[in-house]
């Protein structure tokens, strides 16, 4: 059994179409072919998706992708904060702690992030609350426990194991060397042409488990305030480049593809590449990656659009997206409905354009059942009262009936001084809005 980082070769798996099996290895329990939830399932706690292997010590459970990389860790004793809480490692090699218990006194987590749990990132982002679970002893201990378990695996004779169990443990040893994990993330970024600096907020619907495929680079605006923009001018990628990327991604994910049913079409304004290119790329990628209703629900496709690309998109674009065997989520960065604020942000659009885009969003959502358009606005104590009032007025102009499909996200600017005032501001806007409103937590991949 070998695991390779050669991008043209699919990593093998010992967990394809097999029954669940377990055995002991010293003080560890090794389990292969565990079936978690279907990739599109949603639960009241972070679900373990798809097929995975598991190694348990007395204190911790560690889960592995079919290609062997560690994916989840959870404590099994009372030292762990909550049985529903997990550490998850992304394909970009970042750890995320899923908290379900940090909402005391702040309203339910579900009211502000739309899910029952709050992802706490291990890197700088726009968190609305300062949460540092990584310094809690129970959670910090998971990382040292994993190092110990990894060391034990590397130094224990595997002769006693049945061939499939041994192959799984060997795969885990090979895939989880620190440098191998870093190389794996670098390989992904190399295939798509760089790290995904921000995922659309709608990817929360699939627990951020998306395969990224870049069909364009850059964006139309280069807003002054934006910390994730690329310097490059906007350019679509050619059909040939997109096809080559799909092939390379297929080889990269290998047997772990079976755990995916969602695609992110990057990067910052994929809609500006045109409806035809978006639909063609989505269709080709979903087929190549084996996505489909057999995984529990239609696949999901996520992309960003801008005020300009969305205004330009006509019925032929939305008809092409509606015809796909997927649910398509388009997320628009509108930021403010106040001219002075837009000017201050260096965003070259007007309040009238933002108003028009929001009303078009409501209309597209009503007319195309499989297309789901959402929009982002900025939130923070450093903005003027006019900014806050303009968002309240615009979102309040949509009736609850019209706003039954789609939603808006309020993206907090990084606050260092008056962070505790931001969540009450969000709740005030949410109350006034005819569309469901959630906080946008920027996650990378
Ligand atoms: S906010 Fe959006 S449109 Fe503006 S620079 Fe950033 S990525 Fe580009």
TrEMBL record:
Kindly list the residue ranges recorded as spanning the membrane: none
The protein's required cofactor(s) are namely: [4Fe-4S] cluster
**What Pfam families does this protein map onto?**
Radical_SAM
Gene Ontology terms for molecular function: catalytic activity; iron-sulfur cluster binding; metal ion binding
Q: Taking every annotated instance into account, which residue ranges of this chain make up the domain Radical SAM core? A: 205-445
- What are the entry keywords? Iron, Iron-sulfur, Metal-binding, S-adenosyl-L-methionine
What name does this protein carry? Radical sam
